[in-house]
Write a structure and sequence with these properties.
Domain P-type ATPase A: 108-201
Largest sheet: 8 strands, mixed
Number of helices: 28
Protein name: E1-E2 ATPase
Strand order of the largest sheet: 8-21-20-19-9-16-18-17
Organism: Bifidobacterium panos
Helix content: 40-55%
Number of strands: 21
Membrane topology: Multi-pass membrane protein
Main location: membrane
Distance between the termini: 67 Å
Oligomer: single chain
Number of domains: 5
Radius of gyration: 36 Å
CATH superfamily of the largest domain: Calcium-transporting ATPase, transmembrane domain
Structural class: alpha/beta
Length: 820
């Protein structure tokens, strides 16, 4: 507690020391202890103990037990994938833990008849608190006395107009004092305050749902039911191939049997797809960061591709939250240049109060840019929310500015046409003020007894409006072209919001349909039906914004929600994708998946386009990985049924996977692609993967079945002949991998063709480098092996073409798209 602070005189005494101590002891202080629902331990456990990690780790341990560490290099993908996931979620947790709507600072409270300064957290229930201009209200309170307090509650209600408060009225934590001051009594502190209640709801951890990750996890779960029994069967079949358990243990062939079984299992798990998904999300996030767009959850990049419904908060999104001076329209008899200049000078002086409100500040800024400066004022009547007008006296002329309907009601004569003109401007989204003047002697008690002279003459209408972002119209046009339905949801008057929606052409050439949210039904399904025909909603409460998102979800829409205020936080949390402006409330930014750091609405097309690129390309390259899953499962099944030695080792699949799947997939995933994502990722990818996978599996099995007989090999007894068979099968696998890569990368008449040729050459070159060839046990067929190898390659190419042709015929007869 600091020294005494000088404030206005008041009879209120405030709490004494014993009352304060009792409240502190009972915990009725302005502190909030809520935190995120996930601890560091939970985050680490969720990313380490996954089904994918369990399968790969078990396989790696089995290989290491055999002593064949070269065949265990596939396990490093676990470490990279875990690191990406843990770092991302720890960042999200840190952001949520720092979440606070209220700005921590010192405040002045009245205790024991003295005004003292205390910290934000030291305010207690029933404290008498001073709220001064520029301060944020730290706790819910009731007005005791006021000296023209005017609050900005837009962060809480979405209503962009400032509000004058009178004694007995309630003020909410999170609102900001724009002008004046007040003495208030605290009625709710800490977790019980309005702002803290919203914060607590916003802090609940919500994992972004990824259709891509769901598809991958579905594959992993399905493969688990196959992998475990198949692994056991593979080990058993390989042991039988080498003479049974007794012979395998005696000769050490059990090691080869285990490594062979792992080769079959690892091939069935699309480990590279899991890693590539995380890396691709991270790269997209880094690219967006260069454009001042912060992605706080990597999976949300994918959600961007699926958005078909965008809910926009007006203030801070379409408008920048500021007020701008528009027209000053002269009325009858005041159209001369001299008269107009005198009117504008009077407007400047009327607005030049000690602490002008938002409208007054806009007039000062607008006229100041035109060269107007403060003039001589003999007397001033400041704006009052009770009077709804302000006035100044300059010589023998009294100028009055305020609400048109209030001023006109006090004037002589019929001014119906003037009010019609006012309403027309108001319907176009303007805040309209009326300027009148009266020439004549001013009463001596005018400053203590201000009044409107009925003979005053209307001089001009003053139009102010919210500043519309220059990029809003073009951005909305882009979304219309992309088939994304945009709606404006605001706490402001629906007429005002509708006018702004017309200005930015929210619905193109069609007139936007506006509605007052107070007329919305409570039933979610009925609300969903109503929303289909509505473009603009005004007077929307925070809970209604959330309900609107829920209603759109019932119609299977993927909803994005933008906003900057605390009133938007619940809806942003409920939406599939929450987007906050950089100047938003800390709570809103912390729970949003995407933050437009420089608050530019024009970044949203970049954000959506990047999401579409990621998802469209990941769907394209996922086929590469699933082809390997299909042929690995088919080969494993064939090996178990026919009890032949497994035709390749884990190191072979690592080499082939890197050159025909992993590295080219990463490059293809970064290519430009703006195709909008369509649900059904997993089904389309499976349809794509089956032909190539079946062709590859059959080609390898045919080589493993018939080549030893043609060559007269006994691969069960001769390690050298088994190694040669592995080498031939590896060549077949590599060629088929290049075929599949060419299909995924098509059309090949661009850099994509060069990409395929480069990796094909790299694979051949690797076999010619001694270190690489020795490490991965690669061979180049020569002598008697060459001709059978070429025949096997030719047969494999024919098999691939036949399977592809059959698949094309089947797909063309169905509604399922086969090309990606």
């Amino acid at each position: 507690m600091s020294a005494t602070v000088s404030m206005p005189e008041t009879a209120e005494q405030g709490l004494d020391a014993s009352q304060i101590a009792a409240r502190v002891e009972s915990g009725r202080v302005n502190r909030s202890q809520t935190s995120t629902s996930r601890s560091i331990k939970d985050i680490v456990r969720a990313n380490v103990f996954t089904l994918f990690n369990g399968i790969i780790f078990t396989a790696m341990v089995l290989v290491l037990i055999t002593g064949s560490w070269k065949d265990a290099v596939f396990g490093f993908v676990i470490l990279v994938n875990m690191a990406i996931g843990i770092v991302t979620e720890l960042k999200a947790k840190r952001t949520l833990d720092r979440l606070s709507i209220l700005v921590a600072s010192n405040y002045v409270v009245r205790r024991e008849g003295r005004d003292v300064e205390v910290a934000h957290n030291d305010i207690v229930l029933d404290d008498l608190l001073w709220i001064r201009s520029g301060e944020q209200v730290p706790a819910d309170a009731l007005i005791v006395e006021t000296w023209g307090l005017e609050l900005d509650e837009s962060m809480l209600t979405g209503e962009s107009r400032t509000v004058r408060k009178a004694p007995g009225e309630q003020v909410y934590s999170g609102s900001t004092a724009i002008s004046g001051m007040a003495l208030v009594k605290v009625i709710a502190v800490g977790e019980h305050s309005y702002a803290a209640t919203l914060t607590a709801q916003a802090k609940v951890y919500k994992k972004t749902v990824s259709d891509l990750n769901k598809g991958i996890n579905t594959i992993l779960k399905f493969m688990t039911f196959i992998v475990v029994p198949l692994c056991v069967l593979l080990v058993w079949s390989q042991v039988q191939t080498f003479g049974g358990w007794e012979a395998a243990l005696a000769t050490g062939k059990w090691r080869q049997a285990t490594v062979s079984a792992v080769a079959g299992v690892v091939g069935m798990i699309p480990e590279g797809l899991v890693l590539l998904t995380s890396l691709n999300f991270a790269v997209a996030a880094m690219r967006l960061a260069r454009k001042n767009t912060l992605v706080q959850e990597l999976e949300s990049v994918e959600t961007l591709a699926r958005v078909d419904c965008l809910n926009l908060d007006k203030t801070g999104t379409i408008t920048d939250g500021g007020i701008a001076l528009g027209q000053v329209v002269p009325l009858d008899g005041s159209s001369g240049e001299t008269a107009q200049r005198a009117a504008k000078q009077a407007l400047f002086d009327l607005s030049n109060e000690g602490q002008p409100n938002g409208t007054g500040a806009a007039i000062l800024e607008g006229l100041g840019e035109q060269g107007f400066t403060a003039g001589a004022v003999d007397a001033r009547i400041p704006f009052s929310s009770a009077r709804k007008w302000s006035s100044i006296v300059c010589g023998s002329t009294t100028w009055i500015m305020g609400a048109p309907e209030v001023i006109v009601s006090a004037l002589d004569g019929d001014h119906a046409s003037l009010l019609e003109q006012v309403n027309a401007y108001a319907d176009d989204g303007n805040r309209v003020l009326l300027l009148v003047k009266h020439d004549g002697e001013v009463p001596g008690d005018y400053e203590t007894n201000p009044h409107l002279d009925p003979s005053s003459t209307p001089v001009a209408l003053v139009m102010c409006s919210e500043r519309i972002r220059t990029d809003a119209e073009d951005t909305l046009a882009w979304f219309r072209q992309q088939g994304v339905r945009c709606r404006v949801i605001s706490g402001d008057n629906p007429v005002t919001v509708g006018a702004i929606a017309r200005k930015v052409k929210l619905t193109g050439e069609r007139e936007p349909v506006a509605m007052d949210a107070r007329e919305l039904p409570d039933d979610i399904n009925e609300l969903a039906r109503v929303l289909e025909g509505v473009d603009v909603l005004g007077r929307v409460l925070p809970n209604q914004k959330k309900a609107i998102v829920q209603a759109l979800h019932t119609q299977n829409h993927v909803v994005a929600m933008t906003g900057d205020g605390v009133n938007d936080a619940l809806a942003i949390k409920e939406a599939d994708l929450g987007i906050a402006m950089g100047n938003a409330a800390p709570a809103t930014k912390a729970i949003a998946q995407v933050v437009l750091v420089d608050s530019k609405f024009s970044h949203l097309p970049d954000v959506v386009a990047r999401g579409r690129q990621v998802m469209a390309n990941m769907e394209r390259v996922a086929g590469l990985f699933l082809v390997k899953t299909v042929y690995s499962a088919l080969i494993a099944l064939g090996v178990v049924l026919t009890q032949i030695p497994f035709p390749y080792q884990p190191r072979h699949i690592t080499y082939i996977g890197a050159l025909t799947i992993g590295m080219p997939a990463f490059i293809l995933a970064l290519a430009p692609n703006t195709r909008r994502y369509i649900p059904g990722f997993l089904k389309r990818v499976i349809y794509f993967a089956l032909p190539g996978g079946i062709a590859t599996g059959l080609s390898v099995l045919c080589a493993a079945w018939f080549l030893p007989g043609v060559m007269g090999w006994d691969v069960q007894r001769s390690d050298a002949q088994l190694t040669t068979l592995h080498g031939v099968v590896t060549i077949i696998l590599f060629m088929m991998g290049i075929f599949v890569l060419a299909r995924v990368a098509s059309p090949l008449n661009s850099w994509r063709g060069i990409l395929v040729a480069a990796f094909a050459a790299a694979g051949v070159l690797g076999a010619c480098i001694p270190f690489v060839a020795n490490f991965f046990e690669l061979i180049i067929p020569t002598g008697a092996v060459l001709i059978p190898t070429l025949i096997a390659l030719a047969g494999s190419a024919v098999c691939f073409a036949v399977c592809l042709g059959i698949a094309h015929c089947l797909i063309s007869q169905s509604d399922t798209p086969g090309a990606m």
